[in-house]
Design a protein that fits this description.
- It is a single chain.
- By secondary structure, the protein is an alpha/beta fold.
- Helices cover 46% and strands 17% of the residues.
- The chain has 16 helices and twelve strands.
- The strands form two sheets. It has a six-stranded parallel sheet with strand order 2-1-3-4-5-11, with helices on both faces. Strands 7-6-8-9-10-12 form a six-stranded mixed sheet, sandwiched between helices.
- Helix 1 packs across helix 3, helix 5 crosses helix 15 and helix 7 packs across helix 8.
- The longest helix is centred in the first third of the chain and has 16 residues.
């Protein structure tokens, strides 16, 4: 593997000259610069960016912690963060917590050990005090953590929109079918918004919490059928994610039960799968959330003022799963 010494010898310049060109310091003629670049290319020399970064006390790396990479919401989020980071000269170090507290704590230590300049996280740690007193700027997505900048969407209004849409479909006993989440997550606001708006409109809402086991073991459609057996008065569905709704609607069990023709349905997130399956959904600006989080953490890295709390609007996208009931 070629070294800076090899490059200097090949270009017939001093090691100091190669170092100044690599770090873009000091007056260097264009002719010399191009000669060094040509030698780097000929020797397949790649500067050790991390070593140089440690010398400068700046890595130009942003750490990102998400629960999952497979789930489309987080894929879009990561793409947006990477795009903004790349435009600003930063790279990403991506960590997957798997919604495991111990693993998330481990990931934070890993990022600190690699001297990242900032961290963007979708935290699932119950005790968020692990983030207190950190020297790098941290942006939290979809969760308020004391002392950190937060970027989220208007989950409460999103739940309210879902209730209003089912009300216009003639529902009186809509069923909220969604993941059971820790109270500290902003996503719980969509449940609260839905239930409170139902009551304001004179409806009597029902609630069937979904466990993570139902999601991972493929029994989500079976669970919905069980919930409808338990709540036979249910006349509409609010399913709190597009992915859950898509899995339910494409299941042979629910197809056999004629679910799509019996009950109006509203989902949440606004992912591509909702468009493919013509599902009415509450659309979140997922890409914009990721871009905003990246902008915020970069502002913090550059020593500029960060916004403590940014909430982005959501909107109802009306499609076949409710249109045909009006």
């Amino acid at each position: 593997m070629a070294t800076i010494k090899d490059v200097a010898k090949h270009a017939d310049v001093s090691i100091a000259t190669v170092s100044r060109i690599m770090n873009n310091r000091g007056p260097i003629s264009e002719k010399t610069r191009q000669k060094v670049y040509a030698s780097m290319e000929a020797l397949n020399f790649r500067p050790n960016e991390m070593a140089r970064a440690l010398q400068k006390q700046k890595s130009n790396i942003i750490g990102v912690i998400v629960p999952s990479i497979q789930y489309p919401f987080f894929s879009i989020l990561i793409e947006a963060i990477e795009e903004v980071a790349s435009q600003k000269g930063y790279k990403l170090m991506l960590c997957r917590s798997g919604e495991d507290e111990a693993r998330e704590i481990e990931m934070v230590a890993l990022l600190e050990g690699n001297k990242v300049d900032g961290i963007i996280l979708c935290s699932r740690v119950g005790d968020a005090t692990i983030y207190e007193g950190k020297k790098v700027p941290i942006v939290s997505i979809d969760r308020r953590i004391e002392g950190l900048t937060t970027v989220t969407t208007d989950n409460y209004y999103g739940g309210s929109l879902a209730a209003k849409e089912l009300f216009t479909c003639g529902c009186q006993h809509p069923l909220l079918f969604g993941s059971k989440l820790p109270e500290y997550l902003e996503m719980n606001e969509r449940n609260r918004g839905f239930l409170e708006e139902c009551r304001r409109l004179g409806m009597d809402p029902l609630y069937y919490p979904v466990s993570q086991d139902m999601v991972t073991d493929g029994t989500i459609a079976q669970s919905l059928i069980a919930s409808l057996d338990q709540y036979q008065e249910a006349d509409g569905l609010f399913i709190t994610s597009d992915v859950l709704a898509a899995e339910i609607l494409t299941s042979p069990l629910t197809k056999a039960a004629g679910l799509a023709d019996r009950l109006p349905l509203v989902a949440y997130d606004g992912l591509e799968v909702s468009r493919y399956l013509d599902i009415t959904t509450i659309e979140q600006p997922v890409y914009e959330v990721g871009a905003c989080a990246a902008e915020q953490v970069i502002q913090g890295i550059q020593g500029k003022m960060m916004h403590a709390y940014s909430m982005m609007p959501v909107q109802l996208i009306e499609r076949a799963t409710t249109k045909k009931f009006k």
